[in-house]
## 1
Amino acid sequence: MNAQRFTVLQRLLHWLMAICILAMLFIGVAMVSTVMPKYLTLVSIHKPLGIAILVLALVRLVVRLRYGAPSLPADLPEPMKLAAQLSHYVLYLLMIGMPLIGWAMLSAAAYPVVLFGGVRLPAILPQSDSLHALLWNAHYYLAFAFFAVILLHIAAALFHALVRRDGVFEAMASVSLPGGAAPAE
Amino acid sequence: MPQRPTASSVLGSLAVIAVIIAAAAFAFAYTAGWLSPHRLTPDKIVDALTPPGVKVLGHRRNHAKGICFTGVFEANGAGSELSSAQVFVKGQYPAVGRFNLATPDPNAGDPTVRVRGLGLQISTPDGQEWRTAMIDAPIFPVSTPRAFYQLLIASGSKDPNAMKTLVGEHPEIGAFGAWAKSAPWTGSYAEERFNSLNSFIFVDNSSAEHAVRWSLIPAAKPVSVPPDELAKRGPDFLEKEITDRVHDGPQRWTLAVTAANPGDPTADPSKAWPEDRKTVEVGTLTVQQIEAEADGPCRDINFDPTVLPTGMRTSDDPFPAARSAAYAKSFDRRTAEAADYPRTAGATP
């Protein structure tokens, strides 16, 4: 695919999900560290927001498969290309995997999964101590891994924007390019 | 094509990137409480519950000793004036619960534990659940979750003045202490009245809100038994008694919901409401069968008092949130330790 930028829909999904996922990770670590009344408020946001991220991630995956992505600069060193591709696979896996693990974890604990407006989701696993313990650990540790990968992703994006200035950052970041001309390598 | 940056501007850019990433990591660490050692976390409460040397692996971290029951809640329809929840629509709904003792020690002797509790889950055909965990004390010892944590720390402290200091800071404990000292003991779970203590909001069909507390009032007449007499009945007399008793016939409690008047202390479970408040008898809990906990139907239930059906929600009482957070932590730990508490009938707890 030869376009210089992601499609408008892809950019919209990226930035919307960026906000959702960062909010989600901060809400997650905040809620498990408090017993104050905000605990319930945070939990009541965490669940529906997680399901929203799952839906958005699935839409985004379909859009990505349909529209692809701008190719990376030809002069980008191979290890960086590999890192870029791998990190994006990891991000997709986590965007889809984390909400599913959370949902499965609540199911294995026989907790009702209540979304906004009292909508209840069905359990996707039977009650199970061992599965709950496994999924709880996965959800907990993958959250920190997710945040670390996001920090790496931001650092790489800024590296492209400020140091390499190779148009990779603009492929997702720019609202519009003057005259519609993309920076050529 | 943009100019390639100079070496010094590259260094500047890298510094900017490092600052941004460090700031994000710092914000995350702050949010997670890693920079706030004073924050009252669920881990701290659950840690404080377990006295050193007590074996708790696989068990609830409080109310650790218990026995399961199944039965039915029969709503008489009167509760619908307070809440739109289906559980109050006239009809019968399956109930699972657990009689328990307010102790972190799963092997505690029944005669040694002052506070007795009841966990209950009622399911309705609309797929919703009402979970509640109640105790036989009429009031809670302290006003806030932080004071409860301080109470746990003081109880486990070697400092002989720790408790005195706490009572000085939280004089509300006095009322609970007076109850513990003077209230009669009974020889049966079936003779206990169990109270929600916490206040919740019921929302009726016209969306009007009612601050409420509730109690299960036993049909069996409470018979006072002196503690020395109970001590002779053995370490598991409550579990044996309720098993035999229910075997001989179902045991019943009336569920009574009390509505607050404006100005009643809904946020403070250490304060009782005046006796004359409007109370609605909404139905009857019938306990039909007793089962050991190890492989019983209550074992895997976290009686989280914030699991509420539509038509009920939490109030300004800070305890249900704190209980939900701490119960979840207890559940996370015990499910991870399930192998230490074999799921076999007759296994010693």
Note: The longest strand of chain B covers residues 279-291.
## 2
Amino acid sequence: MDGAHAAWHGAVSIEEQNGTMTALADDTFSEADFTTASTEDGWMLRLDGAWITQQISAVDGKLRALELPSQGNAIIEIGDVSGLDTAGAWLIHRTELALLARDVAVECRTAAPAYARLLTTVRANDAHCPEPPEPTNAFVAMTERVGKATVDAAVEARDLINFLGHSVIVLGDSIVRPGRIRFTSLVHHIEQAGLNALPIVGLISFLIGIVLAFQGAEQLTKFGAEIFTVNIVAQGVLREMGVLLTAIILAGRSGSAFTAQIGTMKVREEVDAMRTIGLDPMQILVLPRLWALVICLPLLTFYANLMGLLGGAIMATVVLDMTFFQFVRQLSGAVTLWTFWIGLIKAPVFGFIIGLVGCYEGMRVSGSAESVGRMTTRAVVEAIFLVIVLDAMFSILFAILGV
Amino acid sequence: MSVTPEFDPTAVIRIRDLRTQFGANVIHDGLDLDVARGEVMGIVGGSGTGKSVLLRTILGLNAPAAGQIEIFDQEVTGATDEERRAVQRRVGVLFQDGALFSSLTVAQNIEVPLAEHTSLSPELRSEIADVKINLVGLPLDAANKYPSELSGGMRKRAGLARALALDPEILFLDEPTAGLDPIGAARFDELIGELRDALGLTVVMITHDLDSLNAICDRIAVLLDKRIRVGTMQNLMADDHPWLQDYFHGPRARAAMAAPNQAEQG
């Protein structure tokens, strides 16, 4: 039976096999064990059981704790072992090394040539790998991280401005020579970023219109000024909400897609291939995407404004017993044409920024697929951040201009 | 239908009448294969003949449409999780680019199967990882490096070390020498041969490398017409199937044959 055990195990040479061998699960092996004795040849360590990876966890600790002789000879008797693999052989060799370190001569006795060969292999490969570096002090590590993040942010800002300049040149060039714009690509991206975004942009704007109307009505009814709900909806949707929500949706939907598309092309060296063929990635990849967003965002904003007002109107007729006609009359008094333009003027700028950040982060992808994911996340966060910063700056600008 | 090969009681992998398909696309049909204990079996075939699919199917990563696959007399398809884990402990796999976990160092990668399948102490796990790193010929300072810091050849060695972590009886290799320079590829072949001899491994390797086939494979399984034809290199060279003729008598094959047989030296 022991022979059959030993025969299937990987450590045993091919010649020792016989036809009766069947597959055995690990638990049919007995746990590794050992006994010590003093014989006339010297101190003896007699191994027993299966010295294989699955069975040596207990014997490992016992071996470490074992009191070794400090002089004379030692014999490690492997003959009774029913299985041996590299992990078991390592334990034997580790004991051997510990004995040698105490100036004790060691002899390993085994009848099986396969065991002897395995021991020889392990002996030849016993060098220790260096310890992993100690984790640095938490405070130092944090300071280091903060410093690194600051430098990275500064470098990134510089690179983004660099990319901005490059994009403006390419964009300006394409206005002078519109023939440079890849028409098919442009239409494709307009469909992806614009047309396909209509349902989600429409739904969200509609719901925001409803929310604004409901909240406005709640508060204004207390003053008996519920008619001004219409003003809140109109000002809120046309000036801010319409364009801001559309921009945020596009940053999440299209900005991220741009980064992922261009990033994947970078990883697969398609962008490098383009350069070697003499195609400019800025012209082919970046330009159509920028134009697509610059064109789409104003159109989507207009649509979002309509849906927002519609949502507000429906909510107003439900909550305030207002007729649709009354809503429209109040609306025409509440807004000027400028209110509408203020929202819409921001749209192409936001579109440009979203496209710029999306393409920039895509071009920064390098090496692994992992960095595509990282850059995509970053593109969305940065695009939304920049859109809101720009929106605040527009607010200040319009306040100064008094519109 | 082919004649079912004789029942070989020593076979560690036994495939009968295997059929795999993706949609209407049939990859293997009526495929039989026996891998004997202790042999190095090379799997070759043209692009798209389903070499990797066969490997994935044997490993249970891909469900076959029909047929039986047994590893150590354990049916792989339809095995319970417990039975599957018992087989997994005895099998090591080296994927094409190592498939190392990128968030772990090389040493930690090797310790993953040990931590999952055994109750060894962390110190012993680390010591065993050290032995395996030595065994596959990685420099010692590679232990604390991340996979992204290693070259392609080192990643393969690290992947091999992880595949050997539990001292498997069967080692599956997916194109172990692809992407290595000829010197690195020859060293890798030598290493596989040495490990086979030292650890008594059974090796199943997909390869396109005629030098590898010549140097270390005992038998070769060729994927032809959705089936497998097994033989030694000499048998297959004598076969008059046109693909085999092209494969073993092309200019590259002649160059590989002309080289001294390294298996004898190893």
Note: Chain A has two domains: 3-124, 167-401.
